[in-house]
Amino acid sequence: MSRTALVIGGGIAGPATAMALRKAGIEAVVHEARAEGDGDAGVFLTLGSNGIEALKAIDADRRATATGFATPELTLRGSKGKTLGVSKISSATAAPSMTIRRADLYRALHEEAVRRGVQVVHGKRLVSAEDTGDAVTATFADVTTATGDLLIGCDGVHSTVRRAVDPGAPAPSYAGLISLGGYARGVDTGAEPGSYTMIFGRRAFFGYAVAPDGEVWWFANVPRPAEPARGEVERIPADEWRRTLAGAFADDAGPAVRILEATATADIMPASPVHLLKRLPAWHRGRMIVVGDAAHAPSPSSGQGASLAIEDAVVLARCLRDAPSHAEAFADFVRRRRPRVEKIVKQAARINNSKAAGPVGRLFLDAFMPLFLRAAARSSFTEEVYGHRTTWEVAA
């Protein structure tokens, strides 16, 4: 049985994977590219009922969810203020989904992993990995190396481990959207605390949630057909983005412009292009495997990126615990996970396309979104996604 693992990447998937492996009797060391204290990028995210259940399987849910707030459903509106419908984003039989700052979730998972004895090594950007047959050695940008029985890629949509597993693996695709967000105080949206609203604007997409203390957490997706160069949009100053967004939402009904005006410059988080990974042919090779966004990156529209990564962590550890070899464990992991995640990724891609729709597409949304939501309510897809239970004792 494998006894040691190199976990590459210390975002959400990394510490969750390390804790799950430790529970399965495998010592894991997390190798994180960021320097210690850098935290994690991003604004906030939805931790679905299913993600919370997966954390419960490794007894890590309380610390992780302590700073979030329940958001069991969201209201969809058109650019003229018309309510298009209400969508459930929680299981009816489990804990409600939560909205949480990404940095808070990152910090909570890291603190809990370290408390359990997981070693996290910072400043370790993976350059290459070599599988020698009886072990795998990682080489980092600082010219140091590390060796373990397994190497698990938790290094996100631009994964280096993915290329080590399959040099011909498809690159993530640009979704045609730039995403950014921030936090505003002292603005009355007319919405109740715990509510979540998303607006299909004429020129861009806007979403906001109202925290229990009245702070408004918001994000925007701005269509941009041409893919920007790496780091290009991240370097655009916050005040320039405020002006861009104010112009994009100027003709839309709703509080978007007022929320932007109430957001301090320091509270506007850096922008980033949205990338997707729809289908990866090979998730593993030899002693190396990828999980989370490194294996299947859905668009943020899914609200499932973090939750699916945590599910992966638990299921992979459970497979390694139960299988007689890592090869059989990896094969079982893919068999259990691929159908679920690819179905969710496909559904999220449809929503993502609607965010980038032009004026004609907006008219289509206003006319047909209520019908779509009614059909979705009659289907079992929401419960299939959010009601999924990842357990430790019983194979799911």
Unreliable parts: none
H and E string:
EHEEHHEEEEHEEEEEHEEEEHHEEEHHHH
- Shape descriptor: globular
Sequence of strands across the biggest β-sheet: 6-5-14-15-16-13-17
The structure class reads alpha/beta
In percent, how helical is the residue content?
A: 25-40%
CATH class of the largest domain equals: Alpha Beta
Q: Count of helices?
A: 11
Cα distance spanning the termini: 22 Å
Average pLDDT level: 90
Biggest sheet layout: 7 strands, mixed
For CATH, the homologous superfamily of the largest domain is named as FAD/NAD(P)-binding domain
Beta-strand share of residues = 15-25%
Number of strands: 19
List the domain count as a whole number. 2
Radius of gyration: 21 Å
CATH architecture of the largest domain: 3-Layer(bba) Sandwich
Under CATH, the topology of the largest domain can be stated as FAD/NAD(P)-binding domain
Architecture blueprint of SSEs:
Blueprint: E1 4-8, H1 13-23, E2 27-32, E3 44-47, H2 49-57, H3 61-65, E4 69-70, E5 73-78, E6 83-88, E7 98-101, H4 102-115, E8 119-122, E9 126-131, E10 136-140, E11 145-148, E12 150-153, H5 160-165, E13 173-184, E14 196-200, E15 205-210, E16 216-223, H6 238-248, H7 256-261, E17 272-276, E18 284-285, E19 288-290, H8 305-322, H9 326-355, H10 359-378, H11 381-386
Parallel strand pairs: 1-2, 1-12, 2-8, 5-14, 12-19
Antiparallel strand pairs: 3-7, 4-7, 5-6, 9-10, 10-11, 13-16, 13-17, 14-15, 15-16, 18-19
